[in-house]
Specification:
- By secondary structure, this protein is mainly α.
- It contains four helices and no strands.
- The radius of gyration is 30 Å and the shape is flat.
């Protein structure tokens, strides 16, 4: 004699299986993904270095002027402060990453076929 399974028991079983599946390790990172991550990190570091060299005044001059005397020019409502600089950095990173991806062809696509030049023509057979 079998007992009917309640909807609650099914829900608990499905939740337990979902939790067990969530605990599984992530798939391994492919060499191409690892190379892309390293290229992005290198491009980000280079863009930060270029920005620091170009904009020394904005880096060293940043202070929180809210609590200093004569600080009436502080306006927390301006949300576009630094937006142009952020766009410039993002563009440098995007250009660097696209240049890095153009230099390294995808190795997973298969062998590359290149024509071979022959030095002497092959004899024609009758």
């Amino acid at each position: 004699m079998s007992r009917p399974v309640s909807a609650t028991a099914r829900c608990v079983a499905a939740l337990a299986m979902a939790l067990v599946a969530a605990c599984s390790p992530p798939p391994p990172i492919s060499p191409q993904d690892r190379a892309d991550q390293q290229a992005r990190a290198a491009c980000r570091a280079r863009a930060d270095a270029v920005y620091a060299q170009r904009n020394r005044g904005s880096i060293y001059g940043r202070q929180d002027d809210r609590l200093t005397p004569f600080s009436t020019s502080y306006n927390p409502g301006i949300t576009t402060t630094g937006l142009g600089d952020r766009f410039d950095i993002d563009q440098m990173i995007a250009n660097c990453v696209s240049a890095a991806q153009a230099q390294t062809p995808d190795q997973g696509a298969g062998p590359t076929m290149e024509p071979v030049a022959r030095s002497t023509p092959a004899p024609l057979s009758p």
